[in-house]
Amino acid sequence: xxxxxxxxxxxxxxxxxxxxxxxxxxxxxxxxxxxxxxxxxxxxxxxxxxxxxxxxxxxxxxxxxxxxxxxxxxxxxxxxxxxxxxxxxxxxxxxxxxxxxxxxxxxxxxxxxxxxxxxxxxxxxxxxxxxxxxxxxxxxxxxxxxxxxxxxxxxxxxxxxxxxxxxxxxxxxxxxxxxxxxxxxxxxxxxxxxxxxxxxxxxxxxxxxxxxxxxxxxxxxxxxxxxxxxxxxxxxxxxxxxxxxxxxxxxxxxxxxxxxxxxxx
Length: 265
Description:
Elements: E1 2-4, E2 9-13, E3 19-21, E4 25-28, E5 36-40, E6 46-53, E7 55-60, E8 68-73, E9 76-82, E10 92-96, E11 103-111, E12 124-126, E13 128-132, E14 137-138, E15 141-144, E16 150-153, E17 157-160, E18 168-172, E19 178-185, E20 187-194, E21 200-205, E22 208-214, E23 221-228, E24 235-243, E25 256-258, E26 260-264
Antiparallel strand pairs: 1-2, 2-13, 3-6, 4-5, 5-12, 6-11, 6-14, 7-10, 7-13, 8-9, 8-11, 15-26, 16-19, 17-18, 18-25, 19-24, 20-23, 20-26, 21-22, 21-24
């Protein structure tokens, strides 16, 4: 999650609400904020954070085998960050934005797959973000899919894996099961993995059908924003995710995974 001091400098952890990514891997170490970090080394892989504030900084380490990543703010390319250092460093501020309007923004980090000529690899690590804000920094709270707000009907397999939100995820691949979760807020997003073996699910808000979501992706990734609702009247609502047991032709299975929910206040 994220924490704000009296000065409104907010720490947005790598696993906080509104942080999503594709093929990034979760690591654990007490040397990092919150005891963990995420890393990637594959060209084109991306990590995004939606935040509310006037400035954001990316915090992470530099090492002899680290590579380069492009930084985009609200869709506009800002710079390429070189994460190489000859002797390695502890986590430090790798990049910070200029002062922005104190409103909602999106920061994207995209691996280039390239590296400093002196580097022996192209790994890029995100430990956390620092947001200067008059508000709360991140714009969504993240909830585990197996929390007290959730109910499962039909056949769902509940699994444990440290890569996932709160180290758990739930999946089904049959037509008929339903995942239902209540929430209080103005928007909700379904967070989870996408890959080449996944199928389709129907999504409902407050009982109203909102669409069929295809969880297939040719780029394997663990923490996608699979689907996000339109703005809702702030208050109590519920979301339902119902696997259809169907898939696109390119997919090899009909699996649907729920890992977490991001709820905007």
